[in-house]
Amino acid sequence: MGQKLQWELILRLHEIIQKGLGQNSGAIKKYYIGVPDNENTLVMPCLATELTDIESRLGPTGMDRNVYTFDMYLFFDKKKGIANAGGKTGERARASYEEMLDLLSGLDFTGNYAAYKPRSIMGILRSHIFLSGDTINTDSSEIAINSDIDVTIGPSDTERSFFEVKITIKVSQLILLTSRI
User: Fold this and answer.
1) Reduced to 3 states, what is the DSSP secondary structure of residue 169?
2) Which residues of the chain form beta strands (DSSP E)?
């Protein structure tokens, strides 16, 4: 797979999240392709995405199914949060942690069942399974989120000044095999 396709997939994931959050919401200040080497240069809150694995599997007759694994990292400043100001250091860190969780997978309990808030990253990803941004797509060549989304929240040790959340997403695409020997 070429570098261009890899970047297009990452940019598409970023675009879906950016649209879902609102272009100028400020919820995510910067989007990175790959994780920057120097954590001190991160503009937070930010999202860094990298392709970590590609599997080519046998698909339906005459097709392969390529499965791409992406790791998305949400970096969130412990002291600043999105709109947090003032307070003691521990209170700011707790408030920032709550803001980070709300941005990641905020839940709405106003109905009979819990639902993702539409402006949370999990809510956006789970409601746009096709990377075209559609909720329904009949195009068999569409790239779609095809499995569970794994989320790992890094340790909230006191040495780091930010929270790190790893979101692992697998997407698949059917590829037409034009000839087989």
Assistant:
1) strand
2) 30-33, 46-58, 63-77, 107-108, 115-116, 144-145, 150-153, 162-176
Give the 3-state secondary structure of residue 96: helix
Would you mind telling me the total number of residues written for the chain in this entry? 181
Give 119-158 pLDDT, tens digit per residue.
889 888 888 777 654 544 444 456 677 667 888 887 666 5
Question: How large is the greatest C-alpha to C-alpha distance in the chain, in angstroms?
Answer: 68
Structure tokens given for 68: 């791409």
- Long-range CB pairs of 129-136, under 8 A, 24+ apart, other chains included: 131/9, 131/12, 131/13, 131/16, 131/171, 133/15, 133/16, 133/19
Under the phi-then-psi rule, with left for phi > 0, alpha for psi from -120 to 50, and beta for the rest, what region is 87?
Answer: left
pTM over 0.85: no
Burial of 117 (0-12, 13-18, 19+ CB in 10 A): middle
